[in-house]
Amino acid sequence: MNRGWSAQDIPDQSGRTAVVTGANSGIGLVTARELARRGARVVLACRSEPRGKEAEERIRGEVPGADVELRLLDLGDLASVRAFAKTFPYERLDLLINNAGVMALPYGRTADGFETQFGVNHLGHFALTGLLLPRLRAARVVSLSSGMHALSTIDIRDLNSVRRYRRWVAYGRSKSANLLFVHELARRLDAAGSDVVAAAAHPGYAATNLQTQAVRMEGRRRAERIVELGNRIMAQPAEAGALPTLYAATAPGVRPDSFTGPSLMMWRGAPAPSWRAPWTLNDVAGERLWAASEQLTGVTFEGL
Description:
By secondary structure, the chain is an alpha/beta fold. Helix content is 40%, strand content 16%. The chain has an eight-stranded mixed β-sheet, with helices on both faces. Strand 5 (136-144), helix 5 and strand 6 (197-201) form a beta-alpha-beta unit. Helix 3 (78-86) runs parallel beside helix 4 and helix 4 packs parallel to helix 5 (167-191). The radius of gyration is 18 Å and the shape is globular.
């Protein structure tokens, strides 16, 4: 892998259609913008209509002639996920970027009663991928995880953290679930002879609003200022954080079930193969999580 790979190396995406969840800010916005810059039609899948429209206008301003459109999607509400898939207007989808996520929030539940981090970060994207699978042909599915997946593997007996909730452990579990999902999806695609590639990526430490979500929700102004200061001093910009995603989505020769992240200690730098915990490559755990996810969402994957 070329350690100097950058957005300028993204191949021509003309004629391709991409969906980027959480495209209204941060890494999702950069990912959508750079795909559009290379000629892709990009669907901005966003929960907030005002923020989504603002992102759409910003991309059009930065990339003249960009083919972008906003479609509403709330990953914390399976009815919204189903509506997005049902009304998706294109017969073919070439790139599905499962980017949106929440981090270390106070305990909460989605519209369907799932613990928020597990529900949004994993179950929402699981359902979206399954519902859009019939449109994916010679395509790539890229799911964003995090180096913080190392905090914990999933607890199949307590996926919703009912017995005990620790926000960072729950976040780590949701990011391990993302990697297990990619692992099991890649295995099933291979067994079915599919030409769809499922891969994973993580941004390292990138300055986005993900870090300030929780403290802002709790009204902790001092903590929010500290986090913002840390972002300015230590984090890489969102443009750099988006590179592993863009590499996994567009670079030639990306292998199924690969995990791409920053080259320097999983923190920053050009895209490179990233370390992942052994439990995210466990076939039995992947099968169990898949079965539980199907049961919880009511979504099955056609042909897999």
